[in-house]
């Protein structure tokens, strides 16, 4: 087998972080009745010893991944609040008004840009998934249905103007051609403009064994170290960074042209130092990670088998991508987890990829009154426990499996 190459710097990738075996795409929900030809692909995370990027191979053509994307941002309450807050802070900080131009990449159903539009700021969304882009256009957010890269950026600049603010929240990790994408950001950005980029923080993934955030659609796992390397290659520089609670701990990086006069805030150096002391700049920083992942799988299976033996009924909550990595890696099927509840009508009535656990409407919960609810998107645990407070009335418990089995008191 040939050694895969780093998608950022091109070096051969010889250091394994964790090998999660072959898995189907985590967003490829199945329709009952046509589940015969489910394809699986290797899911193997590796570390680049030269530029420090953790990544999985892009074994899957991008068109397979994004064209029928079942994720609609507006279905999560905390995301909607996060977006509103972000927009008001950014409009203030970067002095954005009717003469500015904001572009969001992977704008999903337009929920974030609609807040800029309300403030009178001209906006454009770029979204490759036609079904979600249609929702954005319907709510009045101009949206181009396409992938973003250097070519798209050059065309946009030619057609209109460069952007004062480019927002790329939780998209950089999902880009197969990282260098082309970052070159596009550089091309599209006004000389004095800012790019705001959110990525889950690798430091948290490693420290908290968040292995279920590894899935095929999530190509790259960034530290500030590895992100800085790729920006620098394209004439960009990280000038500020914030720590966010989203996705189990994310970074919001503010990036500007390297030649601009923006000062770099001290927090950038602080986080780089923290990453170096955690070993994110060398292979031995990942020692023991795979063993912790294995322990997590065993604990989940023990819990589910024990529950079945005791006659406790366990169901899942939240048909999220990370749940699919967990269930498929642990080989959990409907025999151990009866069904998964999800608020999104786009997922209800379908089966989770691989595990084939059915996705059902929340109303089912009240009819069945199960004993334990396994919360799969553990990053939303507080929100979900609040939403489902009624479960406690029939003595139901909430459980999370990552980083270890925990019954939430
Ligand atoms: Zn590299």
Structure description:
- This protein is an alpha/beta fold.
- The protein folds into 2 domains: 73-286, Vaccinia Virus protein VP39 (Rossmann fold, 3-Layer(aba) Sandwich), CATH 3.40.50; 306-408, Rossmann fold (3-Layer(aba) Sandwich), CATH 3.40.50.
- Helices cover 32% and strands 21% of the residues.
- The strands form 3 sheets. The protein has a 7-stranded mixed sheet, sandwiched between helices.
- Helix 2 packs across helix 3 and helix 5 (150-159) runs parallel beside helix 6 (178-188).
- The longest helix has 22 residues, at 289-310.
- It is globular and about 65 Å long.
- Zinc ion binds at residues 6, 8-9, 11, 48, 50-51, 53.
Topology overview:
Elements: E1 15-23, E2 41-47, E3 54-56, H1 62-66, H2 77-93, E4 102-105, H3 111-118, E5 123-126, H4 130-138, E6 143-144, H5 150-159, E7 163-169, H6 178-188, E8 189-200, H7 202-207, E9 220-221, H8 224-233, E10 236-244, E11 250-257, H9 266-277, H10 289-310, E12 314-317, H11 321-329, E13 340-341, E14 359-360, H12 363-368, E15 372-375, H13 381-387, E16 397-400, E17 406-408
Parallel strand pairs: 4-5, 4-7, 5-6, 7-8, 12-13, 12-15, 13-14, 15-16
Antiparallel strand pairs: 1-2, 2-3, 3-9, 8-11, 10-11, 16-17
Helix pairs in contact: 2-3, 5-6
The structure holds zinc ion (ZN).
